[in-house]
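QA checklist item 7 of 12: single-chain prediction sanity check.
[x] sequence parsed
[x] length recorded as 153
[x] structure emitted
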Amino acid sequence: MRDLKMETAVGLFMMVGIACLGWLSIRLGNVEIGRGDKVPVTAEFTSVQGLKNGAGVEIAGVEIGTIESIEIRDYKAVVRMAVRKDIPLQEDAIASIRTRGLIGDKYISISPGGSDRLIPPGGKLRETEPPVDFEKLIGQFIHGKAEGGGDAK
C-alpha cells in the first residue's frame, strides 16, 4: 500500500513537471496555439526578397503580428499576415518591406493611412513597397560615377 502511494505521488509530480516544461517551452518559443486575438490580412508585392515566414509585422516600431505564408500568384508575391485585431488598419495604409539595421532581418512595416474606411478581417493592403535592392543601388551609383567622371577638364 505504501509503494502505491509513493508511485502515485511520483507520477503526479512527473505529470506536473512535464506540464510546466510544456508551458515554459510555449512561452519562451513564442508559439501560439490557435489564432487567438489575431486576424488575417494579405498584401501583394512585386518582390519579397529576403522576407521569411514568421517575420514580424510592425507599426511605429511595435510588433503587431507575424507573417504566416508567402505564395506566388499572377507573378506577384502574396504575403499572408496575422495581425492583432485591436489594431485598426485603414484602407490606404502602406505595407513596406524593411531591414533591421544594414544587413539584418526583413520585416513588414505598416504606415497608417488617413482614410476612415478600415480593412476588414481577411482583407487586403492595397498599397505596398518592395524592399530596397542594395546591390542594384550600389551598381547604379558605381556606374553613374564611372560615366560622369570623364567630363571634368
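[x] summary fact logged: Residues 38-132 form one domain.
[ ] second reviewer sign-off
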